[in-house]
Write a structure and sequence with these properties.
Elements (H helix, E strand, L loop, with lengths): L1 H33 L3 H15 L4 H17 L6 H17 L3 H17 L3 H17 L3 H17 L3 H17 L3 H17 L3 H18 L2 H17 L3 H17 L3 H18 L2 H17 L3 H19 L4 H16 L1 H107 L5 H25 L1 H8 L3 H8 L5 H11 L4 H8 L3 H15 L7 H6 L3
Helix pairs in contact: 1-2, 1-11, 2-3, 2-4, 3-4, 4-5, 5-6, 6-7, 6-8, 7-8, 8-9, 8-10, 9-10, 10-11, 10-12, 11-12, 12-13, 12-14, 13-14, 14-15, 15-16, 16-17, 17-18, 21-23
Length: 558
């Protein structure tokens, strides 16, 4: 009596929900007609597409294509959120049609957009959808990892519906990998969360999965009750994909109880809906189920035809089924006609041997491919290393040539400076001779006949002349001293203090000869301010402190 009451409540809630779904559909269709801007039209197209991919895939795909056409019509004002949502819907449609690579391509495009926008809510939705894709590919560990990523984000943004959906789908992967306790925990958690937010549609999805779990654990009465409820619910809400899945699950239940006639009836019903909606993966599964049941019922020719049809659909989706399975089924069909009693074991052994042979052949091809890739990688790396070496050698050669050219230019400049100094020394020698002759004339010719006052002036003048003659006498041997002192000194300065200019290095050479500021003024033909300014710049570039003497520092340089 209690179970009848629950069933009645379930039917009433299904009816109410379906009425709500229909009213939403009508409302969105009216909004589309009244839409004043392209942006409103796009949002309405996408909302309608989300409702319709549970009802009619063709309509859903047309709606999302219409939305994409409008989105891409105005590239300058591209709405990335609308584009990403369209990609997600396209991914769902392709996944349910069994076009997994295409679906994954759309999911990745959507994820990249959401990441650029830092939209973590929708990033978690993409993780969830990618998890479902890998689950359909039987890559369950990766699927579970993606579900966990989605749930973690959903907890941080407090999205109860998203958390529950993640647990529901994660339970499917746990069930399909025979971790049944973990699956039951996930389903229970998901159902409690969906009940808390009054999401009847999602509670039905959990019940659908629970029915499969009950079937696998042998609780057939629970499985049948939930199976019937799921069929009725999907019918009343016009949910084609859910109805197709519910029929298939009912077929599995009756297969488990060995009621093969009922199992075949539900497999046919699932196939009918799958063909109409072009659910390629569910079409393949229905044909595989029909092949198994027909074999159990002794309809071997029909079982063989069903298996061949399954193989064609399965190959187009997964690309892993092979001709040897067809050959094994052909052997099974022929041998059963000859000797039914012993055929099952023999054919099973044949199939296992064929699959083992195929696995070994696949490994050989894999090893060969890896070897070829390794060789190609080695060739590419060798080529890159050789090219890099040649490029480096060319750079070094050009650098050496540049340095040689700079050295040649420097030698020319040094020779020019030496010539200039020689001319300066020659000129200085001429002036020295003239001043010595002038001094003799003053002393011998003018001084004896001059008055006392003039003699006093003559003594002052001769004193200055002697001082200049002494200074210029020193300078007369300057060239040989510069040549002696500057052996390698200029090169050392360039090496240790590359910031020094040519004029500053020349000043350092004169300071190394221990010339005074006045003597340097004479040699350089510069003012005292210019000499002092040059000395200041040299001290700064040499990094001397206030207490260090410039001349001593320069003379101590080796």
């Amino acid at each position: 009596m209690k179970s009848c009451f629950v069933y009645f409540v379930f039917l009433i809630s299904s009816y109410v929900f379906s009425q709500g779904q229909d009213s939403t559909l009508v409302r969105l269709q009216n909004e589309l007609k009244l839409a004043a801007t392209d942006s409103i039209k796009i949002n309405t197209f996408l909302a309608l597409a989300e409702i319709q991919y549970d009802r009619d895939f063709n309509i859903s795909e047309q709606l999302v294509d219409d939305a994409l056409l409008l989105i891409r019509s105005d590239v300058n004002n591209l709405n990335k959120q609308q584009l990403a949502k369209a990609y997600v819907i396209k991914g769902v449609i392709n996944r349910r049609e069994g076009k997994h690579p295409k679906a994954l391509e759309f999911y990745i495009k959507a994820k990249e957009i959401y990441e650029s926008e830092k939209d973590y809510w929708h990033i978690s939705d993409v993780y969830h959808n990618m998890g479902m894709l890998y689950r359909h590919q039987d890559v369950h560990n990766k699927a579970i990892t993606l579900y966990k990523k989605s749930i973690e984000i959903k907890y941080s943004i407090k999205d109860t519906h998203g958390i529950a959906a993640g647990y529901n789908m994660m339970g499917v992967s746990y069930r399909q990998t025979k971790r049944l306790d973990s699956a039951l925990w996930c389903y229970t958690k998901a159902k409690s969360l969906f009940l808390a937010i009054n999401s009847a549609d999602d509670v039905q999805l959990v019940n659908n999965n629970l029915g499969v779990l009950y079937r696998e654990t042998g609780s057939m009465n629970k499985a049948l009750r939930l199976g019937y409820e799921n069929v009725i619910y999907a019918k009343s809400n016009g949910r084609a994909y859910s109805l197709c899945t519910a029929y298939y699950n009912m077929s599995n239940i009756f297969k488990k109880t060995k009621e093969f006639g009922k199992s075949l009836t539900y497999a046919d019903s699932s196939l009918l809906v799958a063909k109409k909606e072009k659910f390629r993966e569910l079409i393949a599964k229905a044909y595989l189920r029909k092949s198994y049941i027909n074999a159990k019922l002794g309809n071997y020719k029909r079982a063989y035809d069903n298996y061949r049809t399954f193989n064609r659909h399965s190959d187009s989706i997964f690309n892993i089924e092979n001709v040897k399975k067809i050959q094994a089924l052909e052997l099974n069909h022929t041998f059963r006609q000859e000797k039914l009693a012993d055929s099952l074991t023999f054919v099973q052994e044949k199939r296992e041997v064929a699959l083992l042979a195929e696995a070994e052949a696949s490994k050989k091809w894999l090893y060969l491919a890896l070897f070829v890739l390794a060789v190609l990688g080695g060739i590419v790396i060798g080529f890159l290393i050789r090219r890099n070496y040649k490029s480096h050698a060319q750079v070094l050669k050009e650098k050496l040539e540049k340095e040689q050219a700079q050295m040649s230019l420097l030698d020319i400049k040094i020779k020019a400076s030496e010539e200039e100094i020689k001319h300066l020394i020659a000129d200085n020698s001429m002036r020295l001779t003239f001043k010595e002759e002038l001094l003799d004339r003053i002393k011998n010719e003018i001084a004896p006949e001059a008055s006392d006052k003039v003699k006093q002036s003559i003594r002052s003048l001769t004193s200055e002349l002697r001082q200049q003659i002494a200074t210029e006498g020193k300078l007369s041997g300057l060239q040989s001293k510069i040549d002696q002192v500057n052996k390698g000194f200029d090169a050392k300065l360039r090496e240790l203090y590359p910031s020094l200019t040519k004029a500053e290095r020349e000043m350092c050479s004169l300071l190394r000869l221990n010339l005074s500021i006045k003597e340097i003024m004479t040699v350089k033909n510069s003012s005292i301010d210019a000499v002092k300014s040059t000395r200041y710049r040299i001290r700064k570039k040499l990094g001397l402190s206030g207490g260090e003497e410039l001349e001593s520092f320069i003379q101590n340089l080796s």
